[in-house]
Each structure stands twice: as C-alpha cells, then as structure tokens.
Amino acid sequence: AKALLIFFRQRWGRVSSAPAGFDDGGRRPTMRGKPRTDLWPMTWRGRRMAEGFEPGLVSVIIPTYNRADLLVEAMRSVSAQDYRPVELIVADDGSTNHTKGLGRQWARARASDGLRVRYLCQDNAGCCAARNLGLLESRGEYIQHLDSDDILAPGRIRTLVTRARRVEGFQFLVTAYRLVDARGRDIAVTMPPDFRAANRVA
C-alpha cells in the first residue's frame, strides 16, 4: 500500500501526540472488551510534541518491528522523493532480528544525499508507542506517516506540500492509495473519505 496522510504540525501536534487510542478526556481503549490501562505509560510518555518546528521540513515517521527487507524499501521510497528538506525517523519497536542493523547501515549510506535519517529504538511496546516516539522526536513543519510495509509514490511529498501551502487554514491532507502485491502489481485503488467539496484541495 502507499501511505495517505500528511498533516500540519502547528495545528495537529497537540492532538496527534496524545497516546493512540486515547483522548485528552482520559478515556481508555478496550481490547476484546477489557480495558487496556497498561498501554497508557507506553504510548503517552508523559510529554507532548514540541510546538517549535523547522519551516518547510517534512518529518517522515516509520514505526517498524522485525521488517528488515520491507523497511529498506520504505526508506528508499522516502530517499527517492524530489522534495527537500526531509527528515526520516525510523522508530524501531524492539526488533529481535537484523532489522536494526540493516536499517542503520542503510541510513549511514544515505547520509550525503540531503536526507536526514534518525534511527530510534525502544523496548517492545507496540506500533502506537513507536509512532508516538517518532512524533515526539520530530522537528518538521509537516508530518508524513509511513508504515514499514508501505512506500511513498514518486513526487508525493512535493505535491502535497505544494497543495497544502495553497490552502489557508490547512490541517491535513488525505489521498487515495494503491494496494500492490509483492511484485508491485496493482491489486486495488482505495479512495479517501468523501469529504465535503468545500474542504477539498484537489
């Protein structure tokens, strides 16, 4: 699949730094009908995203766990973007195979192409906690989420940032995405929610 969301840090940072599955009202998620209070310390981390950011910088956040080969493909799709500045933050959720070594090796090899890469590690706490770690450490004006089994389409970041800058009061952009098989062949195209026409930018 190809990731579909980019949002503006200044208007969404306080919301998106809240623990996944929670809101500021203190409600807790459930799993199979039982409260999951154990997730709170792992996802919340006791702090929020910093309000300061680097203008124009796009932070791409990839949470991963034991996905060495897929992770490299995702990272390559970020490196291939024709937009800069970009920081790529990989949040490793305690991988137990060679994911960490391969990811860091790839990052060192790309240190000279204008892409800033940071490889963060945490004890295994789940994808939501890893994604929140990336958010907390990000410095970008814009945030692009990317799962480690997804890739970004060529030119995606430049297109979305260009369109976002045209819209006063922009908060987030959602796009269609393609489902592909292991050989990159299309399976399906999934369209975004049908937002009101007045809120569309494309």
What report would you give on this structure?
The protein has 202 residues and is of the alpha/beta class. It has 6 helices and 10 strands. The protein has a 6-stranded mixed β-sheet with strand order 6-5-4-7-1-8. Strands 2-3 form a two-stranded antiparallel sheet. Strands 9-10 form a two-stranded antiparallel sheet. Strand 4 (54-64), helix 3 and strand 5 form a beta-alpha-beta unit. The protein is globular.
Q: Hey, roughly how much beta strand do the residues contain?
A: 25-35%
Number of helices: 6
- Please state the average pLDDT score: 77
Radius of gyration: 17 Å
Shape designation:
globular
**Unreliable parts:** 11-32
Helical coverage, percent range: 25-40%
Helix vs. strand class: alpha/beta
String of helices and strands = EHEEHEHEHEHEHEEE
Q: Let me know the number of strands.
A: 10
Report how far the terminal alpha carbons are from each other.
21 Å
Brief account:
With 202 residues, the protein is of the alpha/beta class.
Topology:
Blueprint: E1 5-8, H1 9-16, E2 30-31, E3 34-35, H2 40-44, E4 54-64, H3 68-79, E5 86-92, H4 99-109, E6 115-121, H5 127-137, E7 140-145, H6 156-166, E8 172-174, E9 177-180, E10 186-190
Parallel strand pairs: 4-5, 4-7, 5-6
Antiparallel strand pairs: 1-7, 1-8, 2-3, 9-10
Helix pairs in contact: 3-4
What are the salient characteristics of this protein?
6 helices, globular, 202 residues, 25% strand, two-stranded antiparallel sheet, alpha/beta, single chain, six-stranded mixed sheet
